[in-house]
Fold LacI family transcriptional regulator.
Amino acid sequence: MSTAAGRRRPATIHDVAREAGVSRGTVSRVLNGGHYVSPSAKAAVDAAIRRTGYVVNRHARSLITGKSDSVAFLLTEPQERFFEDPNFNVLLRACTQALAAQDIPLLLMIAGTEDERRRNLRYIEAGHVDGVLLVSSHSGDPVVARLHEAGVPVVACGKPLGQTAKIGYVAADDRDGARDMVRHLHASGRRRIATVTGPLDTPGGVERLAGYRETLAEVGLPVDENLVATGDYSRASGEDAARVLLERAPDIDAVFVASDLMAQGVLDTLARAGRRVPEDIAVGGFDDSPAALSSRPSLTTIRQPWDRISTEMVRTLLARIAGEEPAAVILPTELVRRESA
């Protein structure tokens, strides 16, 4: 399989068929799922593919099947947030690995601005991907509705808010995780428990705040709105929120923070204010991201099962691409005790 110029030419399906001793049609059936092929013939084709180094021409296949054999990871956040928040990188890596097991490439798309949304939606609606893993959608974001109207299979990370379309999603049990953290803080003797919420147009922001409020009522503590500050999941917003809380309520003795990255910002502000953690103020986070381990002190937090979330997102999306109905999957969280609370 060399050209006249001495360069090795790519192996073709004909080369594989000749090497395996089968017809071109048999090779084609193996490449398209192995239906109506005997185990011995499939084994011969697989071995021939390895020996010849044959690689599927995805463009040619897409012209025949009408599918791209690729999936988009669409993040509806500003580009800088992708590099700052470790959760996105963890999720992207795990989804890439889950799709690689199916020999499906994953395209990263960031749509944090109107221009980025327009370009990415135009690309997706043109059929260049078979489905979308949607990450960090906000209430009122038109992306979900546009994809649904275009008939593009979508699975969201977290329950989409304010959507009339039936969209599949995979989520950690944010509300129950928040309950576990507030119960833990209360059980350790804390009675002035504040919270830093995530954005209240995201499912995590809404559900974690709801869990916080429900658990305060459950243990007989008043829900004081002065003890609630809102962040945007960034470290800087955690710093700002902690300053607001200390000004409003200097007597707080615990803070439940809706993300580990924001919790790092809370720890920064408390250190500058001369408040010891956990002696003066206990701090609990959410995610169990790398930020929890790099914090000083190390962060007590709620673990999201990122590997399972990624695996279920991919499984659910591939099922949607195959024609199944949208499904919702909610996974349990886990309290992880470390030094901060």
User: Anything to note?
Assistant: The radius of gyration is 25 Å. Residues 203-218 form the longest helix (16 residues). Confidence is low (pLDDT under 50) at residues 2-6, 62-66. The first strand starts at residue 71 and ends at 75.
